[in-house]
Amino acid sequence: MWKTATEADIAHVAAAIGDPTRTKVLRALADGGVLPASALAAEAGVSISTISGHLTKLREAKLLTVEHDGRHRFYRLASTDVARALEELARIARPLPVTSLREDVRNQALLRARLCYDHLAGRLGVVLLAALVEGGVLATAANGYRITPAALGRLGEFGIDVEEFSRRRPAIRYCVDWGERRHHLAGALGAAIATRLFALDWLRRGRARRVVQLTDAGRTGLHETFGVPLDWDTPQAAPR
Description:
The protein is an alpha+beta fold and 240 residues long. It has helices at residues 10-18, 20-28, 37-44, 48-60, 80-92, 101-112, 122-134, 151-158, 162-165, 187-199, 216-226, and strands at 64-69, 72-77, 114-116, 119-121, 138-141, 144-147, 173-176, 183-186, 203-205, 212-214. The chain has a two-stranded antiparallel ribbon. α2 crosses α3 and α3 (37-44) crosses α4. This is DNA-binding transcriptional ArsR family regulator. Keywords: DNA-binding. GO terms for molecular function: DNA binding.
């Protein structure tokens, strides 16, 4: 019997994301990490018994996966596509009202530099992509960006094996950053660069979930290696 393709059931996924508690769960996992139900309940501000039903709905919608470690369960986003969808939704959604100085500080930190699943986002992610294009590591293409021949040596010197990181997933993808309204680098290369920055201690995780901070060595290193402006975190430094 022939089966014909049908339209995607967007309503089912949208309903799963649409609940505020489930949105908080997805945001808590948007840095690509794994968390137990107890931590997700704390992030969402609900009880363990309440979070259980929300986690079930998110798994049924294929937005979360669960990993078992003995008797313990840990949850993570089902794929990078889920993180990208959250980024796109954040770009078109109305901002939530800021109710405290603590929230404002955290929001500014997220806008400055954060993880979008496994790659850099925020102003730092945007200016890094722009620097890679300006420096000839990437070139614009019809479908986004491509790695240039000159990039192989540059990335190799930085400690990234181009052939290795691109074996299991597309090398180049991009997201439209919800804060900057411009592209930041995703895909295997985006993940490889973020991983390398952490390994060099050029990048560190911040106190708030998803927030990352560039160290002084990282600021200098990214400038010397890829031409990222030293004053990237001031509004006028972002290329237009």
